[in-house]
Amino acid sequence: MWNPKEMLARAINRVSLFQLAASLLEAAGAGKPALRSLQKAIEMNPHKIDLHLQASRLYLKLGQIDQAALHCKKAASGLGPGSFIYWLNRACHGGLKGNRWEQPASCEVGPADTVPEDPAGDAITQINNSGLLLLEKGRYYEALACFQQARALGGDDPAVLFNTGLALSKLTRHREALEFYEEAQALGFCNVELLNNKGYSLFHLGYYEEALSCYEVARQFMPHDLGLLSNLASCYHVLGRADEAVACYRSAVKSCPDDATLHNNLGICLEKADKMAEALISYRQAVDLSPQNITFLLNYGHCLANLNHLEEAQEIVEKILQQEPHHHQAWGLRGEVLAKQGKMREAAECYGRALGLAG
């Protein structure tokens, strides 16, 4: 006979066993196995506060302050990333550790079949810095080969691990990159650049909550960094947190008011938040800054049409079609405008062209 109380008791006992195993492994210094055991317990009971607190402590020991912050937030919803970082910064006497590898002053790269070398330092340093030069020049495969060579020579320095992850990220090998970022963190290397790039890889792997945690932690140290604000806003947008995405893009626009892409993205978020009049202003600013950009013009035109500014929307459509006469989305927008004007026959012709059914 089915007994829900008995099943619940068994589940609770299993959670307790996994938590106990995690505590024993942690005491033995086996941080990663302890985390695996704890993660199983969390999967069974994701609302148990002490599991998240224990996970936060373990991640902190492994140097992954982004994951520590994430579990800290889950343990206490009132404790935001700012509170966590304040405590962490005090505990660490100065916050995040900086990159010990200096960027070379010169960025000149030799012929394609040679690897530039930095004259100073030992072989591992030279190879690592050569990789940095190649990375900056967009020669990602060669840069990765340099970092792998540095590691093969005994260069398991956390900065080399981070650079390896960065090269893998550039090659869109995000899952591999993530492993190197976490190895670097486990060795005590954690700066804003690592958190931002780790967040980028997590985002592209679809781990949006984890990516958000990286960006939020990094922002505590660089609150006005343009790239970081943009990444954070994108994450909020994907998670459906439109108001927070808008706030990030507003901060980014304030820092860089001449960036048309930021104005366009702010418009998208405002539109998603049903703030159409404000979205229109942002789209107009994007178009003013980049008047030939088809994407910005289309977004502006659609917003005008949604607000029933049909004549202005028609002008935008004509401008797009002058540049690209066969642009299907522009023909679709033209059909939408004509339909709103009650010109159904002309609208049908435009929709046909949008679908590629007419010449």
TrEMBL record:
Q: Report which superkingdom the organism of origin falls in.
A: Bacteria
InterPro entries the record matches: TPR-like_helical_dom_sf (IPR011990), TPR_2 (IPR013105), TPR_rpt (IPR019734), Ycf3/AcsC/BcsC/TPR_MFPF (IPR051685)
- Print the keywords alphabetically: Repeat, TPR repeat
Where does each TPR repeat begin and end?
A: 192-225, 226-259, 260-293, 294-327
> One Pfam family from the UniProt entry?
TPR_12
Which named protein is this?
Answer: Tetratricopeptide TPR_2 repeat protein
What is the native source organism of this protein?
A: Desulforamulus hydrothermalis Lam5 = DSM 18033
**Taxonomic classification:** Bacteria, Bacillati, Bacillota, Clostridia, Eubacteriales
